[in-house]
């Protein structure tokens, strides 16, 4: 097996990171990449930014970030040619209740089912179960307090479904409030 120093003399750090992301089945943390390549986390982060910029300008790939972990994914803009090539139909539609619940979870995560129901004003058991079964949300722990309710958060499948590379790409959270039917005020969270 070649020594890491010999490999480093022939390849850039970005190339080594790229190959690890390519073979990884799950998202990888910056610290895992740093340990594998015997590099600082800062140099890994810098190379990841360079890779991301390169991909966005010239390639059909993207880096997708979720909870300080990164993975290599196909560009959402090219999803149609992938679906056609693989012969798959991804016209999964979500109900209005599912979209409302997804929005609450995406913007407030981690969030409990009682918190979701307080915002929506209706029982959300079925909607949460449906989103869990689709892999769009996941259980990420338990809240402190009475009954220790389950905390929910979005998944990388959520990012894929909505064509996002990071939760930070969500538009700003705004609540329109009508006053006297004529003017609208936008409240920003």
- Given as residue ranges, the uncertain stretches (5+ residues, pLDDT < 50) are none
Please estimate the helix content: 40-55%
Order of helices and strands: HHEHHEEHHEHHEEHEE
Number of strands: 8
* Gross geometry: globular
Helix vs. strand class: alpha+beta
Model description:
There is one protein chain. The chain is an alpha+beta fold and 189 residues long. The chain is built from nine helices and eight strands. It has a three-stranded antiparallel β-sheet with strand order 1-3-2. Strands 4-6-5 form a three-stranded antiparallel β-sheet. A hairpin with a 2-residue loop joins strand 2 (61-66) and strand 3 (69-74). Helix 2 (13-23) packs across helix 4 (41-58) and helix 3 packs across helix 4 (41-58).
Features of the shown structure:
three-stranded antiparallel beta sheet; 9 helices; 189 residues; alpha+beta
Draw up the topology in text.
Blueprint: H1 4-10, H2 13-23, E1 28-29, H3 30-37, H4 41-58, E2 61-66, E3 69-74, H5 79-86, H6 96-108, E4 111-112, H7 113-120, H8 125-133, E5 137-142, E6 150-154, H9 156-161, E7 174-179, E8 183-188
Antiparallel strand pairs: 1-3, 2-3, 4-6, 5-6, 7-8
Helix pairs in contact: 2-4, 3-4, 6-8
């Amino acid at each position: 097996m070649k020594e890491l120093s010999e490999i480093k003399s022939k390849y850039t750090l970005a190339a080594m990171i790229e190959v690890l992301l390519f073979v990884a089945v799950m998202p990888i943390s910056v610290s895992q990449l740093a340990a594998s390549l015997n590099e600082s986390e800062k140099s890994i982060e810098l190379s990841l930014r360079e890779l991301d910029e390169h991909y966005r300008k010239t390639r059909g790939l993207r880096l997708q970030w979720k909870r300080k972990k990164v993975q290599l994914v196909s560009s959402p803009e090219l999803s149609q040619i992938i679906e056609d090539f693989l012969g798959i139909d991804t016209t999964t539609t979500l109900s209005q209740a599912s979209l409302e619940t997804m929005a609450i979870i995406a913007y407030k995560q981690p969030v409990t089912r009682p918190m979701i129901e307080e915002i929506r004003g209706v029982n959300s058991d079925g909607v949460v179960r449906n989103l869990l079964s689709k892999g769009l949300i996941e259980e990420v722990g338990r809240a402190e307090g009475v009954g220790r309710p389950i905390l929910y958060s979005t998944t990388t499948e959520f990012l894929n479904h909505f064509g996002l590379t990071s939760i930070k790409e969500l538009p700003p959270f705004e609540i329109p409030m009508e006053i006297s039917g004529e003017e609208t005020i936008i409240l920003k969270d």
